[in-house]
Write a structure and sequence with these properties.
By secondary structure, the protein is mainly α. It has helices spanning 4-14, 51-55, 58-78, 81-94, 98-109; strands at 26-29, 37-41. It folds into 2 domains: 1-73, no CATH class; 79-112. The chain has 5 helices and 2 strands; from the N terminus they run H-E-E-H-H-H-H. The protein has a two-stranded antiparallel ribbon.
């Protein structure tokens, strides 16, 4: 089940708002034993979504969250910029493809 903040971001983007600040524009709360709900909505020019509108973003929200997980894993597995630059430098110096091979493996191990 997609998180409420993910579905709100998708709703906002679909309606021309690209940035939602969850510390001032939209405040979410969760009470014991219940799902998160919108406590306050202060997005200029965009009406607060209905429950049905939020629910319509469930599939897109799941897809977005899955993709974010894959991209997070890829970033971690690519290694630091320093490590990447070292591989590139050694490839140029030695005529090897270590960096390309590394990137290809990370991508194949973590498909989108």
């Amino acid at each position: 089940m997609a998180q409420l903040n993910t579905k709100i971001k998708l709703y906002a983007k679909a309606n021309g708002v690209n940035l939602i600040d969850f510390t001032k524009d939209v405040l979410l709360v969760k009470e014991a034993g219940q799902d998160q709900i919108i406590q306050s909505w202060n997005v200029s020019g965009l009406a607060e979504p209905t429950a049905e509108q939020i629910a319509s973003y469930e599939t897109a929200g799941n897809t977005a969250e899955t993709l974010n997980g894959v991209l997070f894993t890829r970033r971690k597995e690519y290694g630091s910029y320093e490590l990447q630059m070292e591989m590139i430098y050694k490839d140029q110096k030695n005529g090897t493809t270590t960096f390309k091979d590394h990137c290809d493996k990370v991508k194949s191990d973590n498909p989108k």
